[in-house]
Amino acid sequence: MTMSAYGVVLESGAVRFERLLPGPIERVWAHVTEGDKRSKWFCGGEVEPRVGGSVALFFKHSQITDEPPPESAREMNDRGKLMAGTVTAWEPPHRFAFNWIGMGEPDSDVEFVLSQVGDKVRLVLTHRRLATRSRMALVSSGWHLHLGLLEDLLAGAPPRGFWSVHQRLEAEYAERLKDAPV
Protein backbone atom coordinates (compact mmCIF):
# COMPACT_ATOMS: atom_id res chain seq x y z
CA MET A 1 0.00 0.00 0.00
CA THR A 2 1.34 3.42 -0.94
CA MET A 3 1.15 6.07 1.77
CA SER A 4 -0.12 9.44 0.62
CA ALA A 5 1.42 12.66 1.89
CA TYR A 6 -2.09 14.13 2.00
CA GLY A 7 -4.16 14.11 5.14
CA VAL A 8 -7.47 12.30 5.16
CA VAL A 9 -10.72 13.21 6.87
CA LEU A 10 -11.61 10.75 9.61
CA GLU A 11 -14.82 12.28 10.85
CA SER A 12 -16.38 15.68 11.28
CA GLY A 13 -13.59 18.18 12.03
CA ALA A 14 -10.76 15.61 12.12
CA VAL A 15 -7.83 14.94 9.79
CA ARG A 16 -5.15 12.25 9.94
CA PHE A 17 -1.66 12.11 8.44
CA GLU A 18 0.68 9.14 8.19
CA ARG A 19 4.39 9.11 7.48
CA LEU A 20 6.99 6.36 7.44
CA LEU A 21 10.17 7.96 8.83
CA PRO A 22 13.76 6.88 9.41
CA GLY A 23 14.06 5.42 12.93
CA PRO A 24 14.66 4.44 15.55
CA ILE A 25 11.47 5.31 17.40
CA GLU A 26 13.31 7.13 20.23
CA ARG A 27 14.82 9.53 17.68
CA VAL A 28 11.43 10.37 16.16
CA TRP A 29 9.90 10.72 19.66
CA ALA A 30 12.62 13.25 20.55
CA HIS A 31 11.89 15.29 17.41
CA VAL A 32 8.18 15.37 18.28
CA THR A 33 8.45 16.13 22.01
CA GLU A 34 11.69 18.07 22.60
CA GLY A 35 11.44 21.78 21.84
CA ASP A 36 14.98 22.23 20.47
CA LYS A 37 14.52 19.38 17.97
CA ARG A 38 10.86 20.20 17.18
CA SER A 39 11.82 23.82 16.42
CA LYS A 40 13.73 22.63 13.34
CA TRP A 41 10.57 21.35 11.61
CA PHE A 42 7.48 22.70 13.41
CA CYS A 43 7.75 24.95 16.46
CA GLY A 44 9.83 25.30 19.58
CA GLY A 45 8.69 25.41 23.17
CA GLU A 46 8.83 23.04 26.08
CA VAL A 47 6.51 20.19 26.99
CA GLU A 48 6.01 19.19 30.61
CA PRO A 49 6.29 15.38 30.23
CA ARG A 50 3.16 14.17 32.02
CA VAL A 51 -0.60 14.10 31.54
CA GLY A 52 -1.86 17.51 32.66
CA GLY A 53 1.52 19.11 31.92
CA SER A 54 1.83 22.35 30.01
CA VAL A 55 2.72 22.61 26.33
CA ALA A 56 4.36 25.75 24.96
CA LEU A 57 4.26 26.11 21.17
CA PHE A 58 6.50 28.90 19.90
CA PHE A 59 6.09 29.40 16.17
CA LYS A 60 8.79 31.32 14.36
CA HIS A 61 8.82 30.09 10.79
CA SER A 62 12.07 31.90 9.96
CA GLN A 63 13.71 29.14 12.04
CA ILE A 64 12.54 26.43 9.65
CA THR A 65 12.72 28.15 6.25
CA ASP A 66 14.60 30.99 4.62
CA GLU A 67 11.85 31.52 2.05
CA PRO A 68 10.05 34.87 2.30
CA PRO A 69 6.58 34.55 3.87
CA PRO A 70 3.33 35.95 2.52
CA GLU A 71 2.45 39.26 4.16
CA SER A 72 -0.28 37.58 6.24
CA ALA A 73 2.36 35.40 7.94
CA ARG A 74 5.17 37.95 8.23
CA GLU A 75 4.80 38.68 11.95
CA MET A 76 4.72 34.99 12.96
CA ASN A 77 7.59 34.30 10.57
CA ASP A 78 9.80 37.13 11.82
CA ARG A 79 8.84 37.72 15.46
CA GLY A 80 7.13 34.50 16.39
CA LYS A 81 3.93 33.64 18.23
CA LEU A 82 3.44 31.66 21.42
CA MET A 83 0.50 29.29 21.76
CA ALA A 84 -0.24 26.86 24.55
CA GLY A 85 -1.74 23.52 25.35
CA THR A 86 -2.14 20.80 27.94
CA VAL A 87 -0.73 17.28 27.64
CA THR A 88 -3.59 14.76 27.41
CA ALA A 89 -1.50 11.63 26.72
CA TRP A 90 2.14 10.89 27.51
CA GLU A 91 3.30 7.34 26.72
CA PRO A 92 6.97 7.50 25.65
CA PRO A 93 7.99 6.67 22.98
CA HIS A 94 4.61 5.76 21.45
CA ARG A 95 1.93 8.36 22.13
CA PHE A 96 1.85 12.10 22.80
CA ALA A 97 -1.36 14.13 22.68
CA PHE A 98 -2.33 17.63 23.70
CA ASN A 99 -5.17 20.10 23.70
CA TRP A 100 -4.12 23.08 21.55
CA ILE A 101 -5.27 26.42 22.95
CA GLY A 102 -5.12 29.63 20.95
CA MET A 103 -5.03 28.27 17.41
CA GLY A 104 -8.62 29.20 16.82
CA GLU A 105 -11.99 28.66 18.41
CA PRO A 106 -12.73 26.15 19.73
CA ASP A 107 -9.54 24.63 21.08
CA SER A 108 -8.44 21.54 19.15
CA ASP A 109 -6.75 18.23 19.94
CA VAL A 110 -3.55 16.82 18.43
CA GLU A 111 -2.27 13.27 18.81
CA PHE A 112 1.00 11.71 17.63
CA VAL A 113 1.20 7.90 17.63
CA LEU A 114 4.54 6.24 16.80
CA SER A 115 5.20 2.57 16.05
CA GLN A 116 8.36 0.81 14.94
CA VAL A 117 8.08 -0.85 11.50
CA GLY A 118 11.39 -2.59 10.79
CA ASP A 119 14.02 0.16 10.73
CA LYS A 120 11.33 2.79 10.07
CA VAL A 121 8.84 4.52 12.32
CA ARG A 122 5.19 4.99 11.40
CA LEU A 123 3.99 8.37 12.60
CA VAL A 124 0.23 8.87 12.69
CA LEU A 125 -0.86 12.41 13.48
CA THR A 126 -4.54 13.13 14.13
CA HIS A 127 -5.90 16.66 14.62
CA ARG A 128 -9.50 16.85 15.90
CA ARG A 129 -12.13 19.48 16.73
CA LEU A 130 -11.42 21.69 13.72
CA ALA A 131 -14.61 23.71 13.59
CA THR A 132 -14.79 24.79 9.93
CA ARG A 133 -13.67 23.56 6.52
CA SER A 134 -11.39 26.58 6.15
CA ARG A 135 -9.73 25.74 9.51
CA MET A 136 -9.36 22.11 8.35
CA ALA A 137 -7.74 23.26 5.08
CA LEU A 138 -5.35 25.63 6.85
CA VAL A 139 -4.36 23.06 9.48
CA SER A 140 -4.06 20.26 6.91
CA SER A 141 -1.79 22.27 4.62
CA GLY A 142 0.31 23.26 7.63
CA TRP A 143 0.74 19.70 8.89
CA HIS A 144 1.48 18.53 5.34
CA LEU A 145 4.31 21.07 5.10
CA HIS A 146 5.68 20.58 8.61
CA LEU A 147 5.67 16.77 8.38
CA GLY A 148 7.54 17.06 5.08
CA LEU A 149 10.21 19.09 6.87
CA LEU A 150 10.40 16.45 9.63
CA GLU A 151 10.82 13.76 6.99
CA ASP A 152 13.64 15.73 5.33
CA LEU A 153 15.35 16.43 8.66
CA LEU A 154 15.31 12.79 9.77
CA ALA A 155 16.50 11.61 6.34
CA GLY A 156 19.34 14.15 6.27
CA ALA A 157 17.89 15.68 3.10
CA PRO A 158 17.77 19.39 2.23
CA PRO A 159 14.48 20.88 3.48
CA ARG A 160 11.76 21.11 0.88
CA GLY A 161 9.90 24.31 0.15
CA PHE A 162 7.61 25.83 2.74
CA TRP A 163 6.15 29.24 1.87
CA SER A 164 6.75 28.58 -1.85
CA VAL A 165 4.13 25.80 -1.75
CA HIS A 166 1.94 26.88 1.18
CA GLN A 167 -0.78 28.73 -0.73
CA ARG A 168 -1.01 26.00 -3.39
CA LEU A 169 -1.41 23.32 -0.71
CA GLU A 170 -3.99 25.32 1.21
CA ALA A 171 -6.02 25.71 -2.01
CA GLU A 172 -5.66 21.97 -2.74
CA TYR A 173 -6.90 21.08 0.74
CA ALA A 174 -9.80 23.53 0.45
CA GLU A 175 -10.83 21.69 -2.73
CA ARG A 176 -10.26 18.23 -1.20
CA LEU A 177 -12.27 19.15 1.91
CA LYS A 178 -15.13 21.08 0.26
CA ASP A 179 -17.57 18.25 1.03
CA ALA A 180 -15.98 17.13 4.32
CA PRO A 181 -18.26 16.84 7.35
CA VAL A 182 -17.87 19.70 9.82
TrEMBL record:
It holds the Pfam family AHSA1. InterPro entries: ASHA1/2-like_C (IPR013538), START-like_dom_sf (IPR023393). Residues 24-154 form the Activator of Hsp90 ATPase homologue 1/2-like C-terminal domain. SUPFAM superfamilies: Bet v1-like. Belongs to the AHA1 family. This is SRPBCC family protein. It comes from Bosea minatitlanensis.
